[in-house]
Design brief:
By secondary structure, this protein is an alpha/beta fold. It has 2 domains: 96 residues, Response regulator (Rossmann fold); 98 residues, no CATH class. It contains 8 helices and 11 strands. It has a 5-stranded mixed beta sheet with strand order 3-4-5-10-11, with no helix packed on it. Strands 1-2 form a two-stranded parallel ribbon. Strands 6-7 form a two-stranded parallel ribbon. A hairpin with a 5-residue loop joins strand 8 and strand 9. Helix 6 crosses helix 7 and helix 6 packs parallel to helix 8.
Length: 231
């Protein structure tokens, strides 16, 4: 089950497509946030004693939902998204959070762009993922500014085309930061920007392709990485 909004609905749709409806004990369903109780929703969720449940949501509602799951004595695997299991969730739930598995898209930690981002932000390379949302911010601003430079205007349609050209098009010169990208564009070169958050390539619907993904398990208040998928 999932929080009822477009963001989490998209996750549920993707999850159902990949797992396959034949492996689900019941159809997905959605709940509204801000409820005083999620007892009836959780009762429905675990009624058939599933091997595992998937609940994409946010910290506030997932905290309340998980407390109800714990009260009802469910012993199967709980899976969520990492944005729902941050420090506030762990503090509220304590040791009862042990065993929850959660995942999120993560930066390609072996890429030159990610190494540059770590240096730019004054971090020390610890071999793991740091500031994943910061890497996305870096790429968003870099791509936008380079696209405006390439388009020679802020006209929306022309900038949109330029974004495609410098990220997903047939650019020959790979660049990992805005400085090198702007120099190449001003020199008349066609570029392919590869970012700190991902390779920054898009499908025809504008969805980001090929993001690395990390799964972690909560153990004693810490996130222990159990798998990282690299694309």
């Amino acid at each position: 089950m999932a929080l009822n909004n477009d963001f989490t609905r998209s996750m549920m749709d993707g999850f159902t497509e990949v797992v396959g409806k034949d492996k689900l004990l019941q159809d997905s369903f959605y709940y509204n946030g801000g409820q005083s109780s999620y007892r009836s929703e959780v009762t429905q969720l675990i009624a058939k004693n599933p091997e595992a449940v998937f609940i994409p949501s946010y910290v506030t509602d997932f905290t309340s939902v998980y407390k109800e799951i714990f009260r009802q004595g469910y012993e199967g695997q709980v899976i969520s998204v990492s944005i729902a299991t941050g420090s506030k969730f762990k503090k509220a739930i304590g040791d009862a959070a042990n065993g929850i598995i959660h995942g999120l898209p993560v930066p390609p930690i072996k890429s030159p762009a990610y190494a540059q981002y770590v240096t730019e932000t004054g971090l020390s390379d610890n071999g793991g993922v740091q500031h994943p949302f910061g890497t996305a911010g870096r790429d968003q601003m870099s791509v936008l500014l380079m696209a405006i430079e390439k388009a020679g205007t802020t006209d929306t349609a022309k900038v949109s085309k330029a974004i495609w050209d410098i990220t997903t098009g047939s650019g020959k010169e790979t660049v990992y930061n805005i400085s090198d990208g702007l120099k190449a564009i001003r020199a008349g070169k066609s570029i392919n920007y590869s970012g700190a958050s991902s390779s920054v390539e898009f499908d025809d619907q504008g969805m980001v392709l090929g993001r690395d993904f990390q799964l972690a398990e909560i153990k004693d208040g810490k996130d222990v990485v159990i798998e990282r998928l690299e694309f």
